[in-house]
Amino acid sequence: MDKHHSQLALAKCSRHQRYNEWVFRDVPSDIMIVVDGGTFSLHKFPLVSRSGRIRKLVAGHRDSDISMIELLSLPGGAESFELAAKFCYGVNFEITAANVAQLCCVSDYLEMTDEYSKNNLGSRAEEYLEVVVSKNLEMCVEVLKQCENLLPLADELKVVIRCIDAIASKACVEQIASSFSRLEYSSSGRLHMNRQAKCEGDWWIEDLSVLRIDLYQRVITAMKCRGVRPESIAASLVNYAQKELTKKSTSWNQSTQPKVDVVSGSNDHEKVVVETIVSLMPVEKLVVPITFLFGLLRSAVMLDCTVACRLDLERRIGSQLDIATLNDLLIPSFHNAGETLFDVDTVHRILVSFSQQEDSDEDMDDVSVFESDSPTSPSQTALFKVAKLVDNYLAEIAPDANLKLNKFIAIAESLPAHARTIHDGLYRAIDVYLKAHQALSDPDRRRLCKLIDFQKLSQESGAHAAQNERLPLQSIVQVLYFEQMRLRNALFCSYPDDDHKPMHQSWRINSGAVSAAMSPRDNYASLRRENKELKLELARMRMRLNDLEKDHVCMKKNMEKSNSRRFMSTFTKKIGKLNIFGHSSSRESSSPSKRSQVTDSKLTERT
User: Fold this and answer.
1) How much of the chain, in percent, has pLDDT values that exceed 90?
2) Which residues form a coiled coil (predicted)?
């Protein structure tokens, strides 16, 4: 279509143009045009007849025999001026998406408008831009690519904005058409979207990756305003970043250590790319892959991007930290030479952001407040996953000799206390840290071990901790104490008759029974002695219960006897009133005057 239209536009060349091409073939040149990148020996007449700028320069010169004109600021340089000169001479050439932006700019600079000649170069380029380019997304991208070297004139002529609007409109239309193609009827007859079908409306993602970052930013912004799906925007950002950042940077490859010996000047472009992509990310959660977010964060740290950029990435990562892996958290420390091997401060900020978002979610979710506190709620499940991830991270960074105790404790305390149902992972990480930092003082060891809730250790971890010489003496005593309570609880659970006994009684222990110096044999003897005492208490309670049951039976019999006597007395009274044998009725019938006297006396008493 564009080739046919170009040939059609060229066919409109007047006979005068073809005459110029034939006449000036053997005529010596009378003017020299100097542009950036070349010098052209031409003739005044064809240039003056089409270009208002050259006409003014020639007419304004005092010497009518002007032989040279300098146009050093001409957009597009020698290549653009050559096309304009061909048009002035009537030489046929094809207008394409690769040169239409140059023609628009050079025609504006040389004032090649219809004011000086009908169907001039400016109107021809504008017509091609409106009729051909704006209907094709790929051609719009190609024109934008050519505009990169023609700014700001191409922007002032609205060539850039027209291409951007056309791209956004076409992408939106493609998305709508793709959505309609995925509509289908279910078995119940309802219309629904088939999400498993491949979305074919995002083919433009690969085309946009050739644009410069400033123009790419404007295109994505226009798409977001037009309502393009956030998933498509995110996919385009991922594709663009991988092409721009993986060329020189190795921070995206997690299997290799990233190199920092790159010239700072070459990192300026990558820094702008990272900051721009972060600013263009959709606000919707789980739209951008978390591995991509961690890759951007590594690049942002390595390239020393702005604080706002890094904080935004940390906040986004914190919102979906429950799906992260240990390799994601292992961010190398790029700029802290001689410090820790991994960037602990960045991970700490991510964990703080996660905790703050968890607190805000619980405050906002007033309707399902009981569901959010339940162990099976999504927020609680995410909290458990993050706690396990943090424990593994602590165990991974613990062998670092440069890792300070305060930073280790800050990472461990970044999550609330109820996040860990089992403290085995935290105990393992602390044990690794104590093994790698044997020069820690006793107060620091006690401070570190205060993080562990020894009641939440499993039986295996508790047995290991009881024999761990790296733990402080106070911690070992606590481990033995809770191990005894666990053993006692297991012993009482073996008696089915003791189900009614409260749990806190079964956990009661003599404070002087356990000490750090007590041997296992003495420990076992003490437990057996306490077990006998508890059995005696149970026997006494059973005897008391039997006595209470006997008293209850006696009271029940007495109540039944008293109730039966009352029942008989009331029953005889009622039987007497019924006059079953008819004696009283005959008497009452024989003396009606007495009945009337009685009723009269009752009435007088009431009055």
Assistant:
1) 45
2) 524-565
